[in-house]
């Protein structure tokens, strides 16, 4: 889901989730692939529990949280509830600019460490390309904070070194914002291959439509996994 899309009148949560999961079942029947969908359950705490139970009842085990919006105390509890129920937690950083910019802001690498400590499984960390701010070097650092057990300090990036206890799990960085097939090579150069790429606008905004956009992203990802450039692979996909 979009970070701003939870349960508005024009797109009710229950109806949207049920409709998307119907399509996911159809895709699996036709292709054998399981598509991951992260329904945004962010709301007051009681409502998040209600939505978690609904997802559990219909056999879905992925949920999305807007971590800044929920607040630390409630986030600790809902993460624990979701993990106890076997969920994968996709964490969106909507609202982070209110806490990471300006004279009173706190560098995002500190928050990334905090979300990892709390126990989310996937975390939005920027792109280094696309529309999100942040140099490739700092975005690479965020990816390392998510995945590595220990890293050295990098004061030029406003980041101290650390070594996680074995009880602290890694999480998967998520690149999202202004992405399309032409940026996959650069993303993998920044992050490596262990990342989630979200390219909604880059798919739906393709000049030949959504299906062509989806094929272009699939082609670019296949190219990276095969050690080819996306431009080279595109000739095979067209």
Task: Give a structural overview.
The chain has 238 residues and is α/β, with parallel strands linked by helices. It has a domain at 1-95: TIM Barrel (Alpha-Beta Barrel), CATH 3.20.20. Helices cover 47% and strands 11% of the residues. The strands form 2 sheets. A 5-stranded parallel β-sheet has the order 1-2-3-6-7.
Q: How much β-strand is present in the residues?
A: 5-15%
Order of strands across the biggest sheet?
1-2-3-6-7
CATH superfamily of the domain at 1-95: Ribulose bisphosphate carboxylase, large subunit, C-terminal domain
**How is the quaternary structure best described?**
single chain
What are the secondary-structure elements, in order, as H or E?
Answer: HHEHHEHHEHEEEHEHHH
Helix coverage percent: 40-55%
Q: What structural category arises from helix and sheet content? A: alpha/beta
Through-space gap between termini: 30 Å
| Mass-distribution shape | globular
Residue-averaged pLDDT, rounded? Answer: 90
- Count, helices: 11
CATH-defined architecture of the domain at 1-95: Alpha-Beta Barrel
What is Rg? 18 Å
Largest sheet properties: 5 strands, parallel
Instruction: Count every beta strand, where a strand is a DSSP E run of 2 or more residues.
Output: 7
CATH class of the domain at 1-95: Alpha Beta
Which ranges are low-confidence, i.e. pLDDT below 50, for 5 or more consecutive residues? none
CATH topology of the domain at 1-95: TIM Barrel
